[in-house]
Amino acid sequence: MSGRERIRYVVELLEEPTPVQEIADRANVSRTTADDELQRLQSDDWVTETTVNGTKAYDLNPVRMLFDEVTNLIEKHSRDELESQLTDLKQEQEELADEYAVQSLNEFREQFAADELSADELRERRNVIATWESINTELGLVKHALQLYGDVVELSSPKTDSHSALV
């Protein structure tokens, strides 16, 4: 991979705002090369510039990530498949709620702190929280994909004049 490709790869793995020098180090490139590529990625809306401890840093653009995820779902799945995924995810969510006799993840979290649990039980519950959060994230993405499905398919069609479809 070229230096610029390594920078993009490192950026895709960011979990929090990261200083330019750290990105450069991870990509094994100079700070100047990293800064140039990060500025280009920012102009393309892939990253956002911020500061960490007074140092220039970059993070993935969450809006771009959301639209990319939703578009990817629409491109890979039919409306029926997305509706089926939504049903399955909702069922998983309801099964967790029933298993732990709660109505929501927030209520489950409140029990986490209030109940006297062993270390193993606490680890299990942390895993349940992570699973529940993942289900919630997927539910949101699938719902967005279903809401935008018709528009994305129509605008992606080569026979559609996208300008007139948006007006």
Descriptive overview:
- The longest helix is centred in the last third of the chain and has 38 residues, at 119-156.
- This protein is mostly helical and 167 residues long.
- It starts with a helix and ends with a helix.
- It has eight helices and three strands; from the N terminus they run H-E-H-H-E-E-H-H-H-H-H.
Assign a percent range to the helix content: over 70%
Q: N-to-C terminal Cα separation, in Å?
A: 42 Å
Average pLDDT rating: 90
Instruction: Return residue spans where pLDDT drops below 50 for at least 5 consecutive residues.
Output: none
Shape, please?
flat
Number of strand elements: 3
Helix-strand pattern: HEHHEEHHHHH
Strand order of the largest sheet: 1-3-2
Major β-sheet, in short? 3 strands, antiparallel
Question: How large, in whole angstroms, is the Cα Rg?
Answer: 21 Å
Number of helices: 8
- SS content category: mainly alpha
**Which percent range describes the beta-strand content?**
5-15%
